[in-house]
Design brief:
The protein is α/β, with parallel strands linked by helices and 250 residues long. It folds into two domains: 50 residues, no CATH class; 197 residues, 3-Layer(aba) Sandwich (Rossmann fold), CATH 3.40.50.2020. A four-stranded parallel beta sheet has the order 1-6-5-2, with helices on both faces. Strands 3-4 form a two-stranded antiparallel sheet. Strand 5, helix 10 and strand 6 form a beta-alpha-beta unit. It is globular and about 50 Å long.
Length: 250
């Protein structure tokens, strides 16, 4: 079946505009620095192919990749020992190589132009692992106001807004608040991470949450302590189901 003439003209015009802009302002790959050879974004095909995608042999709860042959659904040891508050969490890729570099640039280097590339990966993850039509609201993990002032933006909120547009769902960035500043989780083990974020969040608008399916968004998930604490608050406020998606898994 042929595409409508208007759609064809718009697609051709967009492609032509991108080609002209690429000549005037070449896009450079966020991974290797060479000129980007993909139609859109800031990642060349060579670097794109190096991203380590999450496999299918994963914990059904947290999405932890298991290096073994698995033929049935299972919960990993960590989820059995400390069941997370979310119903399911998945990540697009492994926090390594070019994906790690992009996320570092995006989070700490002010490279907000990478948001579209990262949201594209996140969108693919959501479509692959969740019933996207059942998502009622997209909720970013909030930053404390002090840290957001220092950084200038909340990377999770940017990703959540971009993803929500793709899913055609509302992004509700102010439904949650971070009520206290917490030290960085980087060098903490799992138990310390759980203690560090305990009672660090609060739901501002329970009416928005009650009876709904919330999709919590963050850039990276390591042990899942932060997302679990956020999910616990949403569940206490009446959320029917809480899913979580991140660009990468540490």
């Amino acid at each position: 079946m042929q595409r409508p003439v208007v759609t064809t003209l718009l697609a051709d015009a967009t492609a032509a505009a991108v080609a002209v802009l690429d000549l005037a302002f070449p896009r450079h790959c966020a991974g290797c620095g060479r000129t980007v050879d993909r139609p859109q974004g800031h990642l060349c095909w060579e670097c794109f192919r190096t991203i380590e995608w999450r496999g299918t042999a994963v914990c059904q709860r947290c999405g932890l990749l298991i290096e073994a042959r698995v033929t049935h659904a299972f919960d990993c040891h960590a989820c059995q020992e400390h069941p997370p508050a979310f119903d399911r969490a998945r990540s697009a890729g492994r926090f390594a190589g070019v994906l790690r570099e992009m996320l570092h640039q995006f989070k700490y280097g002010g490279a907000t132009w990478l948001c579209a590339d990262l949201a594209e990966l996140l969108h693919g993850c959501v479509l692959a692992h969740f019933a996207a039509a059942e998502v009622d609201m997209v909720v970013p993990v909030p930053l404390h106001t002090q840290k957001q002032r220092e950084r200038g933006y909340n990377q999770a909120a940017l990703l959540a807004a971009a993803l929500a547009r793709r899913l055609q769902r509302p992004c509700v960035a102010d439904v949650l608040a971070r009520t206290r500043a917490t030290p960085t989780q980087t060098h903490l083990h799992a138990n310390q991470r759980r203690q560090n974020v305990r009672q660090a969040f609060a739901v501002r608008s329970p009416a928005w949450v009650r009876g709904r399916t919330a999709l919590v968004i963050d850039d990276v998930m390591t042990t899942g302590a932060t997302i679990s604490e956020v999910s616990a608050n949403l569940k206490r406020a009446g959320a029917w189901r809480v899913w979580a998606a991140t660009v990468a898994r540490g």
